[in-house]
Design goal:
Blueprint (H helix, E strand, L loop, with lengths): L1 E4 L3 E6 L2 E6 L10 H15 L6 E6 L4 E3 L4 H9 L5 H16 L7 E5 L2 E3 L1 H4 L6 E4 L4 E3 L13 H6 L5 H8 L5 H7 L4 E2 L2 H10 L5 H8 L12 H8 L4 H10 L3 H10 L4 H16 L3 H15 L3 H12 L17 H5 L14
Parallel strand pairs: 3-4, 4-6, 5-7, 6-8, 7-9, 8-10
Antiparallel strand pairs: 1-2, 2-3
Pfam family, one: ECH_2
InterPro entries: ClpP/crotonase-like_dom_sf (IPR029045), ECH_dom (IPR045004), HIBYL-CoA-H (IPR032259)
Keywords: Hydrolase
Length: 350
């Protein structure tokens, strides 16, 4: 085995497998710009190395693969003024990496054990072989910080069964292993007790054979039983109508979903719903990432992004003061500006 370690990313060769380990365990391996660059450079090197036949990504520590991007850095950059050029550059490289993963010419195996959120979804759920365990908890939590799902999240969410993706995006609910497979975020369930053996087998075994030897059917997730009311309530054309249907349904779980949504950024809720509906009409991940880049860059000028990160991560008072404070105050024009072309600054994948 050969290894290189820059602290935040460990790269090593294990037989025929190139191994990427995100290594910021105290931050649940939250991604920085340099980490994105390191992962991309490793993919480039191994793409042209005939000795590497499979790429494997996992996270250091016991808590999870990756909790997302380092949003405290985004908060500080957005507050500093100057157009948040560092954040825009980070997102550009991150989304380009997300777009590269599903077209990578070698098997890309993601070990989605523990927490996998936001940017962690972007470096795993677009892979060719996505493994979950009984500890997996997968989510796109962006509306809780005044943001919209990105890293290709709206592509995955918009293609989940029925309106399940809308429910996940607006409430930030987590997927367990069974629901992750059902929703299209993962492929196979490997019990955590077999995960190390599975990863070791990839050194000299075809990934498909390793899966057959180590996987078993995923346990049924809890969301499958709620598909009927999820489809009915979230099919509405506006966030206001979705909330009304959830509240009036008489179903306890639907009422809980409405209560969860009521704590999220009104702007983020409306932008997210529009992004999901638009993503359904787009034909490729590349097109969706182009759209997400527009939305993300526009969100830098929303007060809610900085405020949401402050409340959840910086001050941790969990009491964001959203502006506008109500759904009724978020105009169609304000939502529409998040989808406006960026001209020369477009991501330009599609």
């Amino acid at each position: 085995m050969t290894s290189t370690d820059d602290g935040a990313v460990i790269l090593r060769r294990d037989g025929r497998a190139g191994r990427i380990t995100l290594n910021r365990p105290r931050a649940i391996n939250a991604l920085t710009h340099d980490m994105v660059r390191r992962v991309d450079a490793a993919l480039t090197a191994w793409e042209h190395d005939d000795a590497v036949t499979t790429v494997v990504i996992d996270g250091a520590g016991e808590r999870g693969l990756c909790a997302g991007g380092d949003i405290r850095l985004i908060h500080d950059d957005a507050r500093a003024g100057g157009g948040a050029t560092a954040t825009r550059a980070f997102w550009r490289d991150e989304y380009l990496l997300n777009a590269r993963i599903p077209t990578y010419p070698k098997p890309y195996v993601a070990l989605m054990d523990g927490l996998v959120m936001g940017g962690g979804v972007g470096v795993s759920a677009h892979g060719s072989l996505r493994i979950v365990t009984e500890r997996s908890a997968i989510a796109m939590p962006e509306t809780g910080i005044g943001f919209a799902p990105d890293v290709g999240g709206t592509y995955l969410l918009s293609r989940a069964p029925g309106e399940l993706g809308t429910h996940l995006a607006l409430t930030t609910a987590r997927l367990d292993a069974g629901d992750a497979v059902r929703a299209g975020f993962a492929d196979h369930f490997v019990p955590r007790a077999r995960l190390a053996s599975f990863a070791a087998a990839l050194a000299d075994t075809d990934p498909a054979d390793a899966v057959r030897a180590h996987s078993e059917p995923a346990p049924a997730g809890p969301l499958a039983a709620h598909q009927e009311w999820i489809d009915r309530c979230y099919a509405a054309d506006s966030v206001e109508e979705i909330l009304a249907r959830l509240t009036e349904s008489g179903i306890p779980e639907a009422k809980e979903a409405a209560e969860a949504m009521s704590t999220k950024s009104p702007t983020a809720l409306k932008v997210t719903l529009a992004a999901l509906r638009r993503a359904r009409r787009l034909s490729s991940l590349a097109e969706v990432l182009d759209q997400e880049y527009r939305v993300s860059c526009a969100s830098l000028s929303d007060a809610d992004l900085v405020e949401g990160i402050r409340a959840q991560v910086v001050d941790k008072d969990r009491r964001p003061r959203w502006s506008p404070a109500t759904l009724q105050e978020v105009t169609e024009a304000h939502v529409a500006r998040h989808f406006a072309p960026l001209g020369a600054r477009e991501l330009g994948l599609a």
